[in-house]
Design the sequence.
């Protein structure tokens, strides 16, 4: 827990570019002691913890645990992902309402593909926090790119194969594919920390994904920053209403 028992709003991204601009906007930033890359500071008057967790499911789970221990009262993961659902394209946003690990295979034990043995078939985010993220994402880009709720499929694979995209769509009704969200979901659910995930679609998870991805990342970082400010604005308004006699 942070000094003074401060509960903070957690913001997590896998890569430095996904959280760099958010971290740049912090007032009085200071690193949280420990092995992971976590910074505490104030964003528009709200205490926040910002973490660059690293790529992949293990890193996401480790960061979720570390952020909870540091005092994160909730965690929002923001960053980029590949589009899976028909009709979604580069720049659209998927806010996860269901999470599965597409590379989990316990079929030898009778579990369906995508289910970690001994774990739920899927994980669901905190509904109130997810609604706030959906609202914030739509305010960031009113009348622009699509913002939808949908299934996010996670695995330790960078998907760049149209056949794999078709499989993800048919098997899981996935809207987006990435490498961390479902691991955050698993860890945060076990820890009792409300969570949500917002993903800006950076590529089509097909043969062009590897070339699309770097070009889009810098533009996505600006929208990650705008989303973070919009989310803490809502928190500040709620706080101020509670303090008003």
Sequence:
């Amino acid at each position: 827990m942070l000094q003074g028992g401060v509960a903070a709003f957690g913001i997590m991204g896998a890569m430095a570019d996904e959280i760099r601009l958010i971290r740049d906007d912090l007032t009085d930033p200071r690193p949280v002691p420990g092995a992971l890359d976590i910074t505490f500071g104030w964003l528009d008057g709200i205490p926040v913890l910002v973490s660059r967790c690293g790529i992949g499911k293990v890193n996401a789970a480790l960061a979720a645990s570390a952020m909870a221990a540091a005092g994160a009262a909730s965690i929002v993961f923001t960053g980029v992902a590949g589009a899976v659902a028909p009709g979604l394209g580069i720049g659209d946003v998927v806010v996860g309402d269901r999470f599965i690990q597409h590379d989990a295979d316990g079929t030898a034990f009778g579990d369906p593909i995508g289910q970690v043995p001994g774990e739920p078939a899927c994980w669901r985010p905190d509904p109130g926090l997810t609604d706030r993220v959906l609202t914030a994402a739509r305010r960031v880009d009113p009348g622009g790119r699509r913002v939808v709720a949908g299934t996010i499929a996670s695995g330790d694979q960078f998907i760049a194969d149209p056949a794999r995209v078709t499989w993800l769509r048919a098997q899981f009704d996935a809207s987006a594919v990435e490498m961390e969200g479902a691991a955050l979901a698993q860890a945060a659910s076990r820890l009792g920390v409300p969570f949500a995930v917002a993903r800006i679609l950076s590529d089509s998870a097909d043969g062009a994904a590897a070339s699309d991805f770097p070009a889009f990342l810098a533009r996505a970082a600006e929208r990650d920053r705008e989303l973070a400010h919009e989310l803490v604005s809502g928190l500040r308004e709620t706080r101020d209403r509670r303090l008003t006699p």
Summary: Confidence is low (pLDDT under 50) at residues 240-245.
